[in-house]
Amino acid sequence: MTRPDTAPPPAADRPRSAAWPVVLVLVGGLGFVAVYVAAVLSTRGQGLDTGAMDAVTVSGARHDLLDSLLPNPYLLLAVALGVGVLALLRHLRTGLAVLVSVPLLVASTQVLKDVLPRPQLADPWVMTNSLPSGHTGAALGLALALLLVSTRRLLPLALLVGGAVTVWMGTLVVLLGYHRPSDVVASVLLAVGAGGLGLLVRGDRPRT
Q1: Where are the beta strands (DSSP E) in 58-194?
Q2: Considering the domain boundaries, does residue 61 fall inside one?
Q3: DSSP state for residue 122 in the 8-state scheme
Q4: Least crowded by CB within 10 Å, which of 83, 121, 170, 183?
Q5: What CA–CA distance (Å, rounded) separates 35 from 31?
Q6: Domain tally, the chain
Q7: pLDDT at position 208, please?
Q8: Rounded Cα gap, residues 195 and 208, in angstroms
């Protein structure tokens, strides 16, 4: 009796891609905690972070111009959710991956900003906590939606569009003085964790 040619490969030869989503969740979560501790709970970190924002913040006419170019975060979120709804029509788990990970990412930026304390260690003025950046989180939500639904052929385009929107938003909120650099980095790390969760929900969908 001959063995079938379609026999599954040995366990050692199978791809271990299933571990990557968990790694992304851990990296995103632990990275976020590290940034918060270093940039918010540290006197030196607060000073460097606020100093970096103050050094690049624009004012006057330039501020008004850049503010007019700031993308609407609610529009970005609506587009991201729309991408998820459309994805449901083709692949249920892909659509669910978007509709789970994107709202979680955006909601976490708002909740964490409100609940995490910011002691006044080096700030020249009293300010409430601004970490993570909700504006950047909305841009990352769109990027995450595009990456989760893209086929292998369209993945570079999704990376280009999502990355461009994220960099544009993250740069503007710092130049406008709305957020410190650490706020943007913290949102990116939350997106990494949310992306890992999205991959877990999506499963091993073929990317043809």
Answers
A1: none
A2: yes
A3: S
A4: 121
A5: 6
A6: 1
A7: 58
A8: 20
Answer yes or no: is 91 within a domain: yes
Domain that holds residue 198: 20-202
Helices and strands counted in the chain (H then E)? 8, 0
pLDDT band at 15 (very low <50, low <70, confident <90, very high): very low
Residue 131 sits at φ, ψ, to 5 deg, of -105, 125
Orientation of helix 155-175 relative to helix 134-149, angle to 10°? 180
**What letter represents residue 146's amino acid?**
L
Distance CA 73, CA 92 (A): 26
φ/ψ (deg, to 5) at 179: -145, 150
Per-residue pLDDT band at 205 (split at 50, 70, 90): low
DSSP 3-state assignment of 58?
A: coil
126 pLDDT band, cuts 50/70/90, is confident
Query: Residues 139, 170: contact at Cβ < 8 Å?
Result: yes
Domain-embedded: residue 15: no
